[in-house]
Please model this.
Amino acid sequence: MKNNAKAVRYNKWGYIFLLPFLLVYVVFQFVPTVTTIYNSFYENYLDGLTQVGPNFVGLENYKSLFSSGDIWTFTKNTMVLWIMCFVPQIILSLVLGAWFSDVRLKLKGQRFFKTVIYLPNLIMASAFSMLFFTLFSDGGPVNSILMQLGFISEPYRFLTYTGSTRGLIAFMNCLMWFGNTTILLMAGMMGIDTSLFEAAEVDGATSTQVFFRITLPLLRPILVYVMITSLIGGLQLFDVPQILTNGTGDPMRTTMTLIMYLNKHLYSKNYGMAGALSVLLLIITAILSLIVFKVTGNDKRKG
Amino acid sequence: MEKKQETNKGLGIHARRALAYVVLCIVTFFCLFWFYVLFINATRSNGEMQAGFSALPSTHLIENWTNLVHGSQPIFNGLINSFVVAALSATLCVYFSTMTAYAIHAYDFKLKRFIYPFILMIMMIPTQVTALGFVKLVSGLGLEDSFIPLIVPSIAAPVTFFYMKQYMESSLPLSLIEAARIDGSGEFRTFNSIVLPLMKPAIAVQAIFTFVSSWNNYFIPALVLHDDKKKTLPILIAQLRAADWLKFDMGQVYVMIAFSIFPVIVVYLILSKHIVQGVALGSVKG
Model:
């Protein structure tokens, strides 16, 4: 940087190398964002075979979105599914992470276990749900195993009850994501200064005390990060319930998520409502992203 | 669980270790059991499956596969389509994300102060929420039933960019680039012949991640691809679900699921060491 003119001559390459990213971002993400917002202010749908609109209607789409009541049902469904998935996931991940990173425990076969728990994360969600749909169908293997073992006398119809359908969706998502969370938390736990653990040991702290008084508090930034990113992911919940219930959100629309609702509007070409719903989700995820940005930003400054 | 440890302070480490192994074995069972059943059932005929579950594989795998390929679903096309889309996405994504990261890492320019935080901020915004605009754009450009809208957008991948940037900070010294300049290497050539090879470990990890997420992607392809010949595997699976599935030969259903899942599992098992490390690496500060 001694030679300023030279530095400038090189630095124009910064723009050149950025160009592909910016170009593609503008065309495939920025423009769609603007069109999405734009469409949310227009009425634009198919009434039978007649195309209605596009006509400018101001905030009408938002009004009907909130007044129909559907949005609250689907928001509730999405949140219930997320909580059912997140709570067991974070508990399991914390416990496994603590065990993996505990040097005194000296667990053998760690690589094997880590490989296994991360595996479901890479599975195609739609194929996984189709698999669960067949495995848990009335005449499927799970029912026949349970019957062969004598637990039940006739097939349990998993997909006809709200609890078991939601349970299956949450279970699948939990299975797909707890490995990822475990590895993240473990990386965080490994980063904790080991002298803290040694000092606690000298003072005669039990492993439970160490976990709750040292590990958890020091892990807080990562926990917040994991929780918010999981929430953003939870809002996007689509593939699993869509395939498992064939897009109906049955039983009685209790497993219909927000993105499934959006997908319905997109397929029926009700672009006004799809736009309003998208903007709503965009605002929520933007706020959540900002929190993540803040949290990780602080984290970086510290260490 | 935790309380038990407190009361049995004496047992301590051995009891805890035993407990850890028991829990890990249960977890392992729940992670693998479904794929085991999938494998077993893919090898069994429809008739055998009607008779109930068996823990041992049968001999009908190839028969199920031939039935499936000659059936109504364009499964073979789907496999190839999925592969083409995923492979090209992964290639473009890692190449251009490395390039973007290099631009931010190696150069000092005015807009950098704005662009870097901006990319980090848009990192979390999911594609679903702008899907409406995306679909309109795709039909406006006449790109429906084309793979371009599924492949090209992967050039702008903030998450991959961020990973590459992190990796460069730890293992791409700027002095190396200076040295290349002194030797008279052009900037573009420096990037291709010095930076890219040094980034190989990171590129491998991200290539796998991008490949897998593209291979598994259902939401966007389902909105873009309508022609049966162009559809990717996740869409075909959704169709299988939507069809009156009881009419199907279940052997075929299982083989189809197996062929969507097992290629990824095989690649993963070969490269698992790098992948698991990669997750931890990219995440710590992510």
Q: What stands out?
A: Chain B has two domains: 2-61, 73-242. Residues 250-283 of chain B form the longest helix (34 residues). Chain B touches chain A through 105 residues (CB under 8 Å).
